[in-house]
Write a structure and sequence with these properties.
alpha/beta, Purple Acid Phosphatase, chain A, domain 2, five-stranded mixed β-sheet, 4 helices, 22% helix, globular
Length: 165
């Protein structure tokens, strides 16, 4: 199965306050996010990760975190992904699922090449719920930031159900 999520920001202390995450510490946040991901994902699942794995002073490397997450992972680079080491990543991908094309990109504002279809993105977290809710049918955007998904990857089947094409 295919899944989507972005903006884990593992090890990022300030993200707790910035996005009003319900955690008392980065360790509690990290443990919770890893548990939610690994409970939802099997090793045969493909997870399209829409950027920003880890961030912050003293954070462990993206490669370290990547190795803790189940599934076949496809990385779309986010604006905070700076220590990717040998991880393969994309700036964006255009994928077709069930006859529908989607642009997979970290931020919808990075779409400077004029793509007009459905966009699956992260970047905006839960900070602009009217402009970037989980699904904005009029703008054809799907926000898969971790906070919007209760820190659990969302399946392609659920996305298709939500956009009802």
């Amino acid at each position: 199965m295919e899944y989507f999520i972005g903006d884990l920001h593992l090890d990022h202390t300030n993200i707790i306050k910035y996005c009003n995450r319900p955690f008392k510490s980065t360790e509690e946040m990290n443990t919770f996010i890893l548990k939610k991901w690994n409970e939802a994902i099997d090793d045969t699942d493909t997870v399209y990760f829409l950027g920003d794995i880890a961030f912050g002073r003293g954070s462990r490397t993206s490669q370290w975190w990547w190795s803790k997450l189940k599934g076949c992972k496809v990385l779309i680079k986010g604006n905070h992904d700076r220590d990717l080491g040998g991880l393969k990543f994309y700036r964006y991908l255009i994928k077709e699922f069930h006859g529908v094309k989607f642009l997979l990109i970290h931020s919808p504002s990075y779409n400077d090449f004029g793509y007009k279809g459905w966009v699956i993105h992260g970047h905006h977290h839960n900070n602009y719920p009217n402009e970037y809710p989980l699904v904005h049918k009029q703008n054809k955007t799907i926000n898969v930031s971790a906070e919007v998904l209760n820190y659990t990857p969302i399946s392609l089947d659920k996305i298709m159900e939500l956009i009802k094409l």
